[in-house]
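Tutorial handout. Part one gives the primary structure; part two gives the three-dimensional structure as tokens.
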Amino acid sequence: MDSLSIFLWSLISIVSLIFIYFKKKYSYWKDRGANYVEPTFPLGNLPFRKVHFKDFIVDIYQHKDETPFVGAYTLAKPIVIPTSLDLIQNILVKDFSNFHERGGYYNEVDDPLSAHMFSVDGEKWKFLRTKLSPTFTSGKMKFMFSTVVEVANRFNATLAEIVKPTGSELELRDLLGRFTTDVIGSCAFGIECNSLKDPNSEFRYYGRKVFEDPKFGTALLLLILQYPDLARKLHVKLLQNDVSDFFLNTVRETIDYREKNNVKRNDFMNFLIQMKNGQSIDDESSNQTRKLTMEEVAAQAFLFFVAGFETSSTTMTYALYELALNPEIQKRARQEVKDVLAKHEGKLTYEAAQEMTYIGQIISETLRKYPPVVFLSRRAARDYKIPNTKAVIEKGIDTMIPVYCIHHDPEIYPNPEIFDPDRFTPEQIRNRHPMSFLGFGDGPRNCVGLRFGRMQSKIGLIILLNNYRFRPSPKTAVPLIFDPDIGILTPKGGMHLGIERI
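Part two.
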């Protein structure tokens, strides 16, 4: 047999084995009699065309029936898409002990910044969550409030220099990203990032790079998530070296300076330094079981930075978009701002912001319609029999809780494409299932920084509405198109709006 024949037979054998492997994998849900969507070799239910990941979830969700979930596949891996709010509540809250893992990828040895609280599992997650939760209490938010207002006032001054007396058309997503970068830089690192003055400042550059220039595309990232142990053996790092080096060096230098000069601040970095030195930050005890390493401190600071600046700036971007398209809602929101500030002698205090309930409803409705994170991941730690059914979610199976789909389900939110902040009055909230809103997740692994995220978004909107009016411009996209290359739900091409001073 010549070489060509050997090669061809080898190729046919390999392809046949791969096909048989996938065929066996693709029988998983059928063999269990589950409601599922028929997969296609080799992507499973992932679309062949380039779309945002939320479109993949939407396509699966459309196959829901009276059963509590839809079975699907990412590549060869079976996954669960829960469609029952009761099942979702079990996974996130009631039976959390069985779904405490996210099943993400991190590499503590080669890529220490990836081992932050969002991605780690088990005892390490429990330790970090327990120790970091006191950082985000209402009391700590009051301490940070004035810092955020100070940056917001600088943001207002920057806009005043840009916006012409007759009005201007601006791309607001980048401007809002610069605002939240400066907020997080100040609250997390105690550093003046100056992104508002310098759009190319280091913090802004590296923060943008994390989201807009990821090291891996969606397909490679899925492979890493499916085979995490192999990826670790191959020393796969999620972050680019320059991004990792920048944040590690910044944290080291900041801590070194503070400890040498005995600098104390009411910010996130100060709390992390206390944890590094074995001190408690919750006033209940003076010490803790173990100290954080420098790499662990850097990983948590990195998480706070990238999660804090991007999600909040995106939320404000969408809020202003909807307010521009809905001038009556914008007018009502501005009137609330002016009325409450008048009661507080024109000063934006913590108490004044708390009184602005309609602004809070706008933020909630924005997160409903445009959730930055379109799905939540949980992995079964052991076999889980779904109550009142014969169905079992087997150990190791991942669930993708379809946040975007729930938020846009007309059975839960009538006319879901209509922007209506009155959906979030206390009475309306009480009348809905607790799992009908997952803008910050829920249960023990919900967003630990939700209070801070809401606070900085609220302060930003208050300052903007008090000083500017927003309207659509010729470049405003209606409807919006989402960027398929960015995991966070992001408008493609930015957000162009008309803005004029009041």
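Part three, for discussion. The beta strands are 69-74, 77-82, 168-171, 376-379, 384-385, 392-393, 398-401, 468-472, 496-501. The first strand starts at residue 69 and ends at 74.
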